[in-house]
Design brief:
single chain; alpha+beta; five-stranded antiparallel sheet; four-stranded mixed sheet; 23 helices; globular
């Protein structure tokens, strides 16, 4: 059984079976607390199983800590994937957690955050306590402390930098919060760090299996922009940050077959580190629950065989909203390769060079301030496409549109299609890639309409939209399955004869 908003955690029998079998598919969907030790664990913890009468189940780490339990040092709850039952869609909890992930919580009061998601502060606290077992501030603090625990365990970063990286502006506050949650001071956890020193740190980013990393790399590889990204069969690399203080990262599979990706990260500003990790978790869809998605989509005769073939297919996000918007505009009614060619020209002409390039990562994608008056027709864009890119850049600078992660799908689409040159397809594609919204659905897409028809005649946009009603709230995943099926069915390119 997968969790839902009405059932915060799986039922007791399912939790017990998952705990005893150490089922990785439930990792992060609930936590096991042991009353005799006052420690809480992931369901995959390798420690000997406690007696059933001593076990309590909680739907979040924050709930376990609010009940007086401390995180296990062996299975390390900080490594558990997030629970997408809370983080997806337009539910008030999902929208608030997205605000936390974006770093907005640090600058907002609970009242201001509640206003952003359209409820009162008292209602927001009540919903969090009912569903997650702790108020918003406690959930936020627990998330930051667990990230700090990972940095303390896996890196040799100074404690002061760990405090900054995990969102604490005060070392004193960090030490006090860490001591209260873990029953030990940060320095006590650092006595035997497992990491080695070096320019980059290495972190483990866990996911729930199955996870088709090869498929997500293939999707990104076909769209990678030279100088900004490098994608091969085994890894994704990117430059980010500012021209004078650039960072870089590389993601690859964790050695040994563990359910995790290996992040090598050089981040000159520690305060940005948690935001980078959260962005990568979203971009590579590491918190998705394949069971929840599969249970919803397998009822469709169209999707059932595709799910059997690729049960670990995920939703690839994008690094930056404006970058995705430009790519989407360039991709209107042209091939992926043609859109990539145009985007590469924009990067080479208007992208900002970094002062210390690394292994071919040498440019930052231009922001809206650089493209708002750019001569894009000289790069091969049509008059209409060039005007749309400049119009979107101006609208972003004016604040008429944005990529706020917490906004509902319908609201996002409505605001974007009001701009000249932006239709439903483009708006939904941006919601799918920039917001990672699980229900975004560019129904007018020709490949989708053909793939969903199977051997029958091509579906109309209206017919596909009607068919996809049964795929909510995971329509974006149906898009990835249908696109991939079309790609798999395409004949290989003919070899040129010398």
């Amino acid at each position: 059984m997968a969790p839902s908003h009405d059932h915060p955690i799986p039922d007791g029998k399912t939790c017990e079976q998952a705990r005893l079998s150490r089922d990785a598919r439930f990792d992060g969907l609930f936590f096991t607390a042991v009353t005799s030790t006052r420690i809480y664990c992931r369901p995959v913890c390798p420690a000997p199983s406690p007696k059933p009468q001593n076990v309590r189940y909680y739907g979040s780490a924050a709930a376990a800590e609010a009940a007086g339990f401390r995180p296990c040092l062996r299975c390390r709850p900080e490594l558990a994937p997030g629970n997408d039952a809370w983080q997806r869609g337009d539910h008030v909890i999902a929208r608030t957690l997205k605000l936390m992930d974006s770093g907005a919580f640090d600058a907002l009061s609970v009242d201001a955050m509640a206003e952003r998601v359209g409820v009162g502060a008292r209602q927001l606290r009540r919903v969090f306590v009912e569903r997650l077992g702790a108020p918003p501030i406690s959930v936020h603090t627990t998330r930051r402390l667990l990230f700090a625990k990972q940095l303390l365990t896996e890196t040799t970063m100074p404690v002061t930098e760990v405090a900054l990286a995990s969102g604490f502006g005060s070392l004193r506050r960090f030490n006090a919060a860490f001591l209260q949650a873990n029953r030990m001071a940060p320095r006590d956890l650092r006595r035997h760090p497992s990491a080695t020193t070096g320019d980059a740190i290495t972190l483990r980013l866990s996911y729930r299996p199955p996870y088709d990393f090869e498929a997500i790399l293939a999707f990104l590889r076909g769209r990678a922009l030279p100088g900004v990204e490098q994608v091969d069969e085994h890894s994704y690399a990117r430059v980010f940050g500012t021209p004078d203080a650039p960072g870089w990262l590389r993601l690859s599979a964790w050695p040994g077959g563990d359910h995790a990706l290996r992040l090598e990260l050089h981040c000159p500003q520690p305060g940005q580190m948690l935001g980078v990790v959260n962005k990568l978790r979203r971009m590579f869809d590491l918190d998705a629950s394949p069971q929840s998605i599969g249970d919803a989509l397998k009822e469709s005769p169209v999707l059932r065989p595709l799910l059997r073939k690729r049960p670990g297919l995920r939703l690839p996000g994008g690094w930056d909203g404006f970058e995705i918007a430009v790519r989407a505009i360039l991709g209107q009614q042209v091939s992926v390769a043609a859109a990539r060619t145009l985007a590469t020209r924009i990067v080479q002409r208007f992208g900002t060079p970094v002062t210390s390039p690394v292994a071919g990562l040498e440019r930052l994608f231009p922001g809206p301030e650089l493209l708002v008056e750019a001569d894009l027709k000289a790069l091969g864009l049509t008059t209409a496409r060039a005007a749309t890119v400049r119009g979107v850049a101006q609208a972003l600078l004016d604040g008429r549109i944005d990529f706020r992660s917490e906004q509902p799908l319908d609201e996002f689409v409505e605001r974007w299609v009001a701009l000249p040159g932006i239709g439903e397809w483009t708006a939904h594609y941006m919601a799918m890639r920039a917001l990672s919204h699980p229900d975004a659905f560019p129904a007018a897409d020709l490949i989708l309409r053909r793939a969903a028809a199977g051997d029958g005649p091509e579906l109309s946009t209206k017919a596909l939209t009607s068919l996809a009603e049964g795929w909510r709230p995971w329509r974006a995943y149906s898009v990835m399955h249908l696109w991939r099926s079309a790609s798999d069915a395409a004949p290989p390119p003919k070899k040129k004869v010398a």
